[in-house]
């Protein structure tokens, strides 16, 4: 899963639509991720095709998306994977440990 896909799924923990979703991605990433509409809709299309999200509502003006059960499971699995990566890197928190191990 790409970083962008992860943040879209994370922001869709609460159903959202385009502009609101862009704001939510910025919020959950503490402003680190600023996603454009083209990128966002490309990811939404992919996630919908993969069954991770579904369109909850389409009033012609806005399309509201939400996580499917499968999408929530994928998000939780990715979260666990990222936590394991952080755990694996704990020994590198001190610069000296990093240089000692790899030099």
From TrEMBL:
InterPro entries: Metal_resp_DNA-bind_regulator, Tscrpt_reg_PadR_N, WH-like_DNA-bd_sf, WH_DNA-bd_sf. SUPFAM superfamilies: Winged helix' DNA-binding domain (SSF46785). It comes from the Bacteria. Residues 13-76 form the Transcription regulator PadR N-terminal domain. This is PadR family transcriptional regulator. It comes from Caryophanon latum.
